[in-house]
Structure formats: structure tokens, C-alpha cells
């Protein structure tokens, strides 16, 4: 399982370091991630990989993290 | 949660007596009362207990003053009646279910009688106990009526402890029974700090409901203050942005951290109160760091949530 470094960064680093992985990632990103990291992305999710060039950049706008359910932490909510 | 688990054996007979006494209330208040009491019984679902400081405070006071187990049990019994009484008043104040008011207020009156009966056994009418009780209930009334208009959490946050202030009466009782009236002031300060942090946790848990119902909430008050706008003009989306994107839970948690520092700076030390407060502050820290971690992951895109 991937370590503390976020998965996105690990994928990018591997693509930079491994040409074969990069080609597979561009062609079939879910299969590439499954093979390299053991992570299965379910069928209902779409995943697109784009490669920047010297004169073409992409700015991805992630979903807003305003979601209490994703917050980790065991909390007691006592009244007095 | 050692500060809780070490006292479970003592609490069992106390809660049993509460149940027996409530069963003797006029029908149907016996059943209604025990169903209500069970909701706040920390012996049910022990690992995710509900109410601690109210029932445990007398036992924690044994760490500071010389009290017999029997005296602790009596103070805890009175505090349980008092806790249920004030919870019912709180429920009625927030309620939209008018049809239940008659039974709730009848039950509340009987619980108050029970509480007073226990305290009268322990403290004669000329005891200073009653002046403290008067004061705490007066502060409670001031708090529930005015915390909103005076924006307590922003201007003088320790005042938010007043809403649960009556719980301190058992600590006052403990000090008086042990002949240590001179400790009451600092004991009161340590409990107020704990009650303020407890209220902060409650406000985190309930902010959405409080916003919908128009109840005063310290977290919402902090956000309104930071935006410089009236809370009524802020939407839920705006509040969520402050919580999940703009890091206000870090600043909120810093307030609880400062409470802990103040607690450590007092000249008296009740170890269980320190442990209890530490537990609550850690809970807030976990919430704040959970939010930051989630934000960090989200910044990298949805793919990060599959790791």
C-alpha cells in the first residue's frame, strides 16, 4: 500500500522514472495503477490522465473538501 | 478513559437508586423519567459514554479533598437529578414539540425536588452551600438568555461554561464537607475551563443543527467574527468553507489548547479533571488534523482518496 506521500505524487514520480509505466498510464490508467500499486479504482469512477508539455499546462480543480464524513477522528461528544 | 472507568463500580448503585426513586413518581412520569434517564446513563454503552463530568465530579474531588465514598455517592446522586432537570429545561427551550411540555416540566419539577432533598440532608439551611447554588443557577439563567446577544464565545468565552455551571455544586459540596471552603474558587475555575472545552466539542458536533434552529453556537460565532459579518447573513456553504478549507478549526482548537495551559497553571490539581480535559482537547486536535489531512488529499485530486 502506498505510504504517507499522496498517491497522486507517487503515480507521477513513477511515471517520470519508468517510461513503460507512463505509456500504460496514458493508455489505460486504471490498469496501470492496479498493476503498480495494487489499488483498484471501481468501474463507476472515470479516470483521465493528461501529460503537460513545454507549452501546455493543465490546472485541475479538485472537488471542494467540505465533507464531514471524510474527516478522521474518534470524538466523544459528551454533554455535561 | 481511566478517569471514567475507575469509577464505574461506584456509579452502578447510584444509578440504580436514581431508577428506583424515579419509578415512584406519579404515573406516567416514572416510565417517562427512567426512559429519559437511561439516555444519559454513562453505564450504558460504556465505551462511548455520554455524560461524564456531572456524575464523576464528586469522585474526582476525592483526589483533592478528604471525602468518604458515601458522601461522594450522595453528591453524585444529587448531581444526576440536577443534570436530568437542567437537560429537560434545555430540551424544552429548544423544542418545537409543544405537546410534550406538560410532562417534561412535571418531570423536571420532581427531579429538582429529589436533588434538593439530597442536598438538604447534607447541608443545613445556613450553610454557604446554598449561596453557591443560588449563584450558579443565576449564572445559568443569564447564560441561556444572553449568550447570543452578548456573543459570549467571542467576547468572554469562559462565560459559555455558565450553561453547565450548576454541575459545580457537587464540587462545592465536596469542599464544604471536607472543611476546605478555601479551595472552592480554584476548583470552580478548573471546572469552568473543562465545561468551556466541553461546550466547544458540543458546538462542533451540533453547528448545523444550531444554525438551522437559530441556537447560539461558539464555532459559528467565531466564524461570524472572522468574516466580520452577521451570522444570519452566512450560508451553510460559507460556514463549511471556513471549516473545511480556510482552517478555522485550527484556531478553534488553539482556544482549547489555551484552556489546558490555564488549567495546568492553577495552584490546585485534580488529576482526573486534567486527564478528562486532555481527552477533550485531543479530540478537537484530531478533528482539526483530520480536516487538514482531508484538505491536503483533496488538493491532489480525487485519486488520493483511493490510497
From TrEMBL, chain B:
The lineage of its organism: Bacteria, Bacillati, Bacillota, Bacilli, Bacillales. InterPro entries: Isoprenoid_synthase_dom_sf (IPR008949). It comes from Paenibacillus paeoniae. This is Terpene synthase.
Amino acid at each position: 500500500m502506498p505510504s504517507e506521500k499522496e498517491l497522486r505524487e507517487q503515480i507521477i514520480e513513477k511515471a517520470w522514472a519508468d517510461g513503460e509505466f507512463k505509456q500504460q498510464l496514458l493508455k489505460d490508467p486504471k490498469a496501470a495503477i492496479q498493476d503498480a500499486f495494487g489499488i483498484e479504482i471501481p468501474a463507476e469512477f472515470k479516470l483521465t490522465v493528461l501529460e503537460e508539455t513545454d507549452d501546455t499546462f493543465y490546472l485541475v480543480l479538485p472537488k471542494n473538501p467540505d465533507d464531514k464524513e471524510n474527516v478522521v477522528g474518534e470524538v466523544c461528544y459528551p454533554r455535561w | 478513559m481511566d478517569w471514567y472507568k475507575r469509577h464505574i463500580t461506584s456509579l452502578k448503585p447510584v444509578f440504580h437508586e436514581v431508577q428506583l426513586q424515579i419509578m415512584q413518581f406519579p404515573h406516567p412520569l416514572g416510565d417517562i423519567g427512567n426512559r429519559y434517564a437511561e439516555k444519559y446513563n454513562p453505564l450504558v454503552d460504556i465505551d462511548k459514554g455520554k455524560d461524564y463530568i456531572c456524575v464523576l465530579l464528586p469522585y474526582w474531588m476525592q483526589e483533592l479533598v478528604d471525602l468518604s465514598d458515601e458522601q461522594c455517592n450522595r453528591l453524585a446522586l444529587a448531581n444526576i437529578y440536577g443534570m436530568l432537570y437542567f437537560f429537560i429545561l434545555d430540551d424544552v427551550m429548544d423544542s418545537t414539540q409543544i405537546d410534550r411540555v406538560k410532562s417534561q416540566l412535571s418531570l423536571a419539577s420532581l427531579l429538582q425536588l429529589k436533588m434538593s432533598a439530597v442536598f438538604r440532608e447534607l447541608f443545613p439551611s445556613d450553610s454557604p452551600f446554598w449561596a453557591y447554588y443560588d449563584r450558579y443557577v443565576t449564572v445559568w439563567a443569564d447564560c441561556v438568555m444572553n449568550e447570543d446577544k452578548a456573543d459570549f464565545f467571542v467576547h468572554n468565552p469562559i462565560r459559555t461554561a455558565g450553561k453547565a455551571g450548576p454541575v459545580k455544586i457537587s464540587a462545592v459540596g465536596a469542599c464544604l464537607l471536607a472543611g476546605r471552603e478555601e479551595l472552592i474558587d480554584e476548583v470552580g475555575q478548573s471546572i469552568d475551563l473543562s465545561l468551556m472545552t466541553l461546550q466547544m466539542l458540543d458546538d462542533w458536533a451540533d453547528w448545523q443543527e444550531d444554525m438551522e434552529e437559530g441556537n447560539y453556537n461558539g464555532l459559528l460565532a467565531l466564524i461570524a467574527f472572522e468574516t466580520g459579518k452577521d451570522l444570519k447573513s452566512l450560508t451553510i456553504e460559507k460556514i463549511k468553507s471556513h471549516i473545511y478549507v480556510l482552517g478555522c478549526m485550527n484556531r478553534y482548537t488553539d482556544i482549547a489548547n489555551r484552556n489546558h495551559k490555564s488549567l495546568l497553571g492553577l495552584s490546585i490539581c485534580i488529576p482526573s479533571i486534567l486527564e478528562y480535559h486532555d481527552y477533550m482537547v485531543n479530540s478537537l486536535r484530531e478533528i482539526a488534523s483530520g480536516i487538514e489531512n482531508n484538505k491536503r488529499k483533496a488538493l491532489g485530486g480525487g485519486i488520493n482518496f483511493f490510497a
